[in-house]
Amino acid sequence: MAGWSVRDMPDQSGRTAVVTGANSGLGYVAARELARKGARVVLGCRSEARGRDAVARLRGELPGAGVELGRLDLGDLASVREFAESLPYERLDLLVNNAGVMAMPYGTTADGFETQFGVNHLGHFALTGLLLPALLAAQGRSSGVRSGARVVTVSSMAHLLGNIDANDLNSERRYRRWTAYGRSKTANLLFTHEFARRLAAAGSGVVAAAAHPGYAATNLQTAGPRAEGRRAAERLMALGNRVIAQSAEAGALPTLYAATAPDVRPDSFTGPSLAMWRGAPAPSRRAPWTLDDRAGERLWAASEELTGVSYAAALKA
After folding, report:
1. How confident is the model over 133-185, as pLDDT tens digits?
2. Catalytic annotation on 311?
């Protein structure tokens, strides 16, 4: 893993990948590098206009790249179902749950969930469950990275801000934007932990892993302040992106490692090597509460109830 870069990525020819939030930032870089290595990549984007621009930009950078657009609003379960049902591929080798929102003012999704929990966790939980039959169908290929599909969920070092509150998943009692963000990123890791456990129990070759970018310069940092008109905070975040953060290209490396490297293990968590902040991909620190089996089971049950998506039938097949 030492010094790993995109040059070390295995050939992705013949693989089909879905990357959420791929119109900019980390998602765009991940989609581009997967396509560069030969993968067919579906960009799951909330905005069709920005998604079309991203596809055009990718084809300009990589003539002949196998990239296409799928409209996907993770804050609307109807959109999630429509995306999954319209995906024209029976086999899916890779799902990168990358899209997210950070430290937003209080709001709710189309289905009434607190926005950060709804988009960052519930939307991806539903999407993964709906695409699980296609992921399971990708098993049984030849050796190496094609031996089974992968699901890589992008969390954050901000998960260290706090555990989820099982009695207030939607922050209805008290809302603090950064606490809610940290809890949604904890939910990403608990989901990965419980999903990996269930996949193993079912004897599946699908690998569920997690990654985080450290501090990478994307529009994620400025979106929240901009939404509230907090110009000073927006300028401060933009300054941090220029002075402190690593590039989106560097920030995407842990995700790409988790998605393609041959030695990635289930429930692993990959991030930057230097204090979780920047550097080449390496095993990352994670809070003990993200490895709590009982908490993972409770979150899973609540997520199934809230989204109406069950994994049981696919895992038993």
Report:
1. 999 999 654 334 445 899 999 999 999 999 999 999 999 999 999 999 999 99
2. no
Q: How many Cβ atoms from other residues are within 10 Å of residue 143's Cβ?
A: 7
In three-state secondary structure terms, 105 is coil
Which residues, including other chains, have CB under 8 Å from residue 218's CB and lie 6 or more apart?
A: 24, 25, 26, 241, 248, 251
- The whole-angstrom separation of Cα 192 and Cα 249 is 24
Q: How many CB atoms lie within 10 A of CB 38?
A: 15
Structure tokens at 8: 């070390």
Out of 181, 215, 257, 311, which one is annotated catalytic?
181
**CB-CB contact of 314 with 84 (8 Å):** no
Residues of the chain with pLDDT under 70: 1-2, 139-147, 216-245, 274-278
For helices 48-61 and 25-36, give the axis angle rounded to 10 degrees: 40
Q: With contact defined as beta carbons under 8 Å apart, do 187 and 299 qualify?
A: yes
Q: Cα–Cα distances in Å, from 177 out to 119, 189, 217?
A: 14, 19, 20
Angle at which helix 220-228 crosses helix 231-243, to 10 degrees, equals: 170
DSSP code of residue 63: T
